[in-house]
Amino acid sequence: MNHYSYLISKLEKLLDKEDILLNESMKNHTYFKVGGKADILITPKTIEDLIASIKVCDDEKTLYYIIGNGSNLLVKDGGFRGVIIKLSKLDNITVDEDKIIALGGAQLKDMSSCALKHNLTGFEFACGIPGSVGGAVTMNAGAYDGEMVNVVTEAMVMDKDCNIITLRNGDLELGYRTSAVMKYNYIVLSVTIKLKKADALKIKARIDELTYRREDKQPLEYPSAGSTFKRPEGHFAGKLIEDSGLKGTAIGGAAVSDKHSGFIINKKDATAKDILDLIEFVQKTVSKNFNVDLHPEVRIIGED
């Protein structure tokens, strides 16, 4: 850590002590519950602290990586050399009539609960997506016939030079698991969504229905990053995997879920290598059987 001493001293002037973690295991910050240690992990509480921290990393020529809730992230067993900046404490949510404005680290489930509390419909689809709103915009997250593109009116983002830009819905280029945020490596600072007034009982009934469907169909009892692969055009990844006879296939502690073949799960003390090896095996098998290429939806960082 000696080569980080000046960087750490600068961060200590910006952030509270509990917001700077050294040699932090990424198992504690990802839904897969795997991954090596990050040299430094910080959790800024304000946008100003976030910007100042990034400038410190840039000044010290230190690699940094932004994460939200870690729900769609796989960190390799060798960990991450540099600074992980986790936005989970940038989670303020406010309501303005039929609009909800949330900072990038706010959790989708909390926004969904907020919408219900204020009798606003249109965001029920997100009630069980275990991610942050920043990550959801980056990936144009969706489920059960709903997507972020359908509700987002604008997002405030920051580019690599710390310039803050407001992007309207069309400017965000929201497509299937893609966006301008991903394309240009923007950081999502805040998101505004526009919903409609509706009866709270009907909204609650829809949330209950989707929650039941999710619990019935998905292996929520095991750590995972949700759907492991993007949907190939004209196909469903889970069906291709199941039709390849791969349901239940395991490498080390990682397995293709018996409940939903589109999920690779950490069944028992898996390593990141177990998961990556299983991803590769699934890809090769499906390609051989159906001549279809599967591409991971999960983001992969770190060293072997």
UniProtKB/TrEMBL annotation:
Active site location: 177, 227, 297
GO cellular component, one term: cytosol
UniProt keyword annotations, A-Z: Cell cycle, Cell division, Cell shape, Cell wall biogenesis/degradation, Cytoplasm, FAD, Flavoprotein, NADP, Oxidoreductase, Peptidoglycan synthesis
Pathway: Cell wall biogenesis; peptidoglycan biosynthesis
Location, primary (coarse class): cytoplasm
Broad class of enzyme this protein falls into: oxidoreductase
Domain FAD-binding PCMH-type, first and last residues per copy: 34-198
InterPro entries named in the record: FAD-bd_PCMH, FAD-bd_PCMH-like_sf, FAD-bd_PCMH_sub1, FAD-bd_PCMH_sub2, MurB, MurB_C, MurB_C_sf, Oxid_FAD_bind_N
Any single biological process term in GO: peptidoglycan biosynthetic process
Source domain of life: Bacteria
EC number: 1.3.1.98
Compartments reported by the entry: Cytoplasm
SUPFAM superfamilies: FAD-binding/transporter-associated domain-like, Uridine diphospho-N-Acetylenolpyruvylglucosamine reductase, MurB, C-terminal domain
GO molecular function, one term: FAD binding
Chemical reaction(s) catalysed: UDP-N-acetyl-alpha-D-muramate + NADP(+) = UDP-N-acetyl-3-O-(1-carboxyvinyl)-alpha-D-glucosamine + NADPH + H(+)
Cofactor annotation: FAD
PROSITE patterns: FAD_PCMH (PS51387)
Role according to the record: Cell wall formation.
Family to which the UniProt record says this protein belongs: Belongs to the MurB family.
HAMAP family: MurB
Protein name stated in the entry: UDP-N-acetylenolpyruvoylglucosamine reductase
Native source organism of the sequence: Clostridium putrefaciens
